[in-house]
């Protein structure tokens, strides 16, 4: 299976963005940040959504790290 060279790095970045978004959503749902006029403010459903987004971001980041490590090992093997 062939993946472009920077695929691992892109997956790590996407995963980190999702983790940050999930943290913000969770904090807003627990009334820690954001305006009180927001639909997420003190909404416990968004606490669960935030945790799910954090989990998905973590899985994508870990997958990106694995892909990146495999790519660096393949490039260091002499032909």
Characterise this structure.
With 79 residues, the protein is an all-alpha fold. It has one domain (7-76). 71% of the residues lie in helices and 0% in strands. The protein has 2 helices and no strands. Helix 1 packs antiparallel against helix 2 (44-76). The radius of gyration is 17 Å and the shape is rod-shaped.
In short:
The chain has 79 residues and is mostly helical. The protein is built from two helices and no strands.
Give the beta-strand count. 0
Can you write the helix and strand succession as a string? HH
The helix tally amounts to: 2
**Overall morphology:** rod-shaped
What distance lies between the first and last C-alpha atoms, to the nearest angstrom? Answer: 18 Å
Number of domains: 1
Average pLDDT figure: 89
Largest sheet: none
Q: Proportion of β residues?
A: under 5%
Helical content class: over 70%
Computed CA radius of gyration, to the nearest angstrom:
17 Å
- List unreliable stretches of 5+ residues: none
């Amino acid at each position: 299976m062939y993946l472009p060279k920077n695929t691992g790095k892109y997956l790590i970045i996407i995963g980190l963005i999702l983790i940050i978004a999930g943290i913000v959503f969770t904090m807003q749902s627990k009334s820690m940040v954001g305006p009180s006029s927001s639909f997420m403010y003190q909404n416990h459903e968004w606490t669960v959504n935030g945790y799910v987004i954090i989990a998905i971001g973590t899985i994508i980041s870990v997958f990106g790290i694995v892909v990146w490590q495999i790519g660096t090992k393949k490039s260091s093997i002499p032909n």
